[in-house]
């Protein structure tokens, strides 16, 4: 097993003929134990996202690539009451104030630097300049100074320049060989509101059992819920797959390409090695399976794999040194500007200049 050090990590960032990826396959378990019912995300129209393999095996999506990215990215956010939090010092802290003194970190924003909320603040021009630099010259220095996690988890300026970069860190959770359950429930109102002459018996009869009726929606009549998604049981393993794409990392360019790549690699290593968020949603609390040890592997260009002793600690140590060498962008607090938001809405139907960026 390789014990990584600074030189080893630097080689991963610098060597264009080096390994193609660092990968992890991690077995997870429900906190209730093997065979317990867990609840995947529910989507409109389809319910659970379940794919059927050629042999009939059903595979359920437990947490998508996008959801995993949105769970991991906030590990870099400043923690209240902990000014020395090491991960927060790796990236600029960009806060957006809005409403009644409320604040939203850019690290919590789903579309990152390409989000509408960015275009509705004083960050708009800096973000546009950074995207133009990427689109026109392939230079990501300004993105790395402004919002470096946009490079880690992927970015697409879909509303303007069309500049686009793939995710460098990808994580997904799937449950194999699942059996689906259904659940039913009955809502009973606290009082007989028809008897109290809030409405008539005829109105009550017409509304009961019809979830779409106004009386049912307001909780005044009996409403059954039948055959709703009731979770799944994984007869096979629940697997979390993590991939750090070293090929895409080494395509990044900037004013100081070597320092840039090492900095972003450090962020990628931290993002990949940080323990996964256990609470995914109600009814889906997962932890690592202690009977299946997770192993990080380096994948060479010829497909050969070798184990690497990657840990959250050695990833963070490297990331701190690389961040210091590159130079972290400044922290900023900006205010949501309604006028800028309205302007962006008004321009939404206008054609954008420039073609679609090549998906690297």
Task: Provide structural commentary.
The protein has 360 residues and is α+β, with helices and mostly antiparallel strands. 28% of the residues lie in helices and 27% in strands. It folds into two domains: 6-176 and 235-341, no CATH class; 178-231, no CATH class. It has twelve helices and 19 strands. It is globular and about 80 Å long. Mean pLDDT is 92; it is low at 354-360.
Q: What class, by secondary structure content?
A: alpha+beta
Q: Work out the number of β strands.
A: 19
Tally of discrete structural domains: 2
Q: What is the 3D form? A: globular
| Main beta-sheet strand count, sense and barrel state | 9 strands, antiparallel
Identify low-pLDDT runs.
354-360
The oligomeric status of these chains comes to single chain
Number of helices: 12
Radius of gyration: 25 Å
Sheet-strand content, in percent, reads: 25-35%
Separation, N- and C-terminal Cα atoms = 32 Å
State the share of residues found in helices, binned by percent.
25-40%
Overall pLDDT score? 92
Question: Helix and strand layout, with pairings?
Answer:
Layout: H1 6-14, E1 21-30, E2 37-38, E3 42-43, E4 47-48, E5 50-52, E6 58-63, H2 65-72, E7 94-98, E8 102-105, H3 116-119, H4 124-137, H5 141-146, H6 149-153, E9 155-156, E10 164-165, E11 169-176, E12 178-187, H7 201-207, H8 214-217, E13 223-234, E14 238-245, H9 246-249, H10 257-273, E15 279-281, E16 284-288, E17 295-299, E18 305-308, H11 312-326, E19 332-335, H12 338-346
Parallel strand pairs: 7-19
Antiparallel strand pairs: 1-14, 1-16, 1-17, 2-13, 3-4, 5-6, 6-11, 7-8, 9-10, 11-14, 12-13, 15-16, 17-18
């Amino acid at each position: 097993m390789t014990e990584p050090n600074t030189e080893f990590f630097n080689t991963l960032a610098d060597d264009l003929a080096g390994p193609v990826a660092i990968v992890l396959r991690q077995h997870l378990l429900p906190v209730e134990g093997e065979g317990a019912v867990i609840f995947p995300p529910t989507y409109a129209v389809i319910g659970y996202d379940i794919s059927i393999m050629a042999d009939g095996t059903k595979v359920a999506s437990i947490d998508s690539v996008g959801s995993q990215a949105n769970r991991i990215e906030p590990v870099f956010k400043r923690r209240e009451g902990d000014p020395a939090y090491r991960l927060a010092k790796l990236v600029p802290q960009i806060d957006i104030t809005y409403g009644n003194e409320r604040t939203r970190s850019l690290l919590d924003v789903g579309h990152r630097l390409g989000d509408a909320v960015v275009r509705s603040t004083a960050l708009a021009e800096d973000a546009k300049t950074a995207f133009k630099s990427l689109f026109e010259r392939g230079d990501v220095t300004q993105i790395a100074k402004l919002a470096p996690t946009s490079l880690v988890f992927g970015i697409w300026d879909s509303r303007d320049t069309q500049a686009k970069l793939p995710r460098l860190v990808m994580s997904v959770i799937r449950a194999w060989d699942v059996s689906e359950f259904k659940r039913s429930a009955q809502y009973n109102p606290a009082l007989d509101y028809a008897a109290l002459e809030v409405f008539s018996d005829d109105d009550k009869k017409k509304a009961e059992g019809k979830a779409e009726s106004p009386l049912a929606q307001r909780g005044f009549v009996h409403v059954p819920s039948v055959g709703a998604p009731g979770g799944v049981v994984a007869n096979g393993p629940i697997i979390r797959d993590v991939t750090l794409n070293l090929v895409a990392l080494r395509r990044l360019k900037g004013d100081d390409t070597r320092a840039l790549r090492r900095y972003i690699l450090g962020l990628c290593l931290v993002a990949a090695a940080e323990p996964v968020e256990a609470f995914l949603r109600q009814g889906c609390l997962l932890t690592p399976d202690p009977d299946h040890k997770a192993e990080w592997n380096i994948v060479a260009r010829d497909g050969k794999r070798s184990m690497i002793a990657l840990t959250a600690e050695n990833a963070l140590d490297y990331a701190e040194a690389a961040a210091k060498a590159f130079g972290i962008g400044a922290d900023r607090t900006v205010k949501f500007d309604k006028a800028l938001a309205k302007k962006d809405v008004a321009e939404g139907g206008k054609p954008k200049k420039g073609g679609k960026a090549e998906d690297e």
